[in-house]
Amino acid sequence: MKPRKFVVLIFAAGLAATAAAWTPPERVDRRPDNYVTYGNDIAVGPDGTPHIVWSECPRETYLEMVKYSRRDHDTWTVPINISRDSGDLRQPAVVVDSAGRPLAVWSEVYAARIRYARFLGDSWSVPKLCFSTGGITPRLAIDSRDRTHLLFEKYGRPGVIWYSYYVSEADSWAHPCTAAAGPGELGWSDLAVDRDDHLHAVWMDWWTYGIGYSRNDGTGWSEPVRLPDPAPQGQSCDPRIACDALGRPHVVWEERWGGYWVYYSTLVGDTWTQPVRVDTLPGLRPVLCCDETSRLHVVWRRSGLWHRARAGSGWTEPVFISDTAIAMLPELATSPAGLHLAFRGGWWLFYSADAGAGGISEERAIPAGQRLDVVCLRGGELLLRFDVQERCNAAVSLWDSAGRLAWSCSLGQLEPGHHEGRVSVRQLPSGIYVCRLEAGGRPSAAKTVVLK
């Protein structure tokens, strides 16, 4: 059977390149010397633009304000005080919708209230209370329908993890409901959305020193379950959760027993796997994300920041990220072109990216019949070869080494079978790119190089 041909506008890419390292840290904040930064969060828009929020204040005053900046080509925009005030404003979180519009929340810790602001196109809205009830430590997630979900907690016992979502049409939040409850205080919650827009939540139970988990498939939150505890005598702290392309949740946390250790577990069927250490050396405050090929990426602190990936049942060797031993408070996000990391180094806020980590498929990570083969041709042309399993719409895109969308094109509706064709992007400069194919909702990617 002859391969089907397709004709599109000119595009380009090329031979597989070696994996890129983490980029040198870029300073994001522009605070005065007598100011300090604290917690932060990062999200990536559909065009690959990273958006960061953080809190900062004059040294030793703790009158914190919430700042925002995004990457604009090769620099960062001037930070904006989106809280329009200062006080005990901490624990900011941010998401970005499919139109590239960020929404941020943060805590007024002593007042135990949560406020939010959203980007209106040319400015940020005036901050508002999410609801009249109290709350601290907000965590956000956004689904494929652009619905923003919020998880938070309150002070005291009995412990409750609360859930709400943003109603964009009314510019308001749904009345909070209980996601989980227990006799002791619950805290350090985190939230993730899977491919079916189902919600997955984790938290620390201060009563048992363990990690709890619940799921919401749209009909309500499931009965909480406890993850296996590798050291019941110690504290399982600050859990983080992410879902892979198949909808499976993965969790990492900091275990405090005989030192500080980073542990990992995943849900297989209805059972959580026995936790394993991510590294043989002690570590603190892990964060994680999953790329489009279902590879898990974990970043943690250990005399600087380290990164390790898991595909299938194997882990890559740990990679040192930061050039300073005092790097801390990492937050991690992914896009089709790579990983995006925000972290504090000293009292400054930094950003780094790894274009070779996210979205670049390994053989074992690609679904059967989904491998993308790219051959670079001189003159800005590219030969694509791939298979589709069913009649579907397909599109191809190029992402540059900074994680930005450089070019995209629809391939139209394709029939099942093998396809190949020449495309070109003569308007793009020579360099390394990620070529991403999406066919029938199944993404695949390959690192390439454009040659003029």
TrEMBL record:
UniProt KW keywords: Signal
Signal peptide span: 1-21
Flavoprotein found in the keyword field: no
Gene3D superfamilies according to UniProt: YVTN repeat-like/Quinoprotein amine dehydrogenase
InterPro entries, per the entry: Sialidase_sf, WD40/YVTN_repeat-like_dom_sf
UniProt-recorded name of the protein: Exo-alpha-sialidase
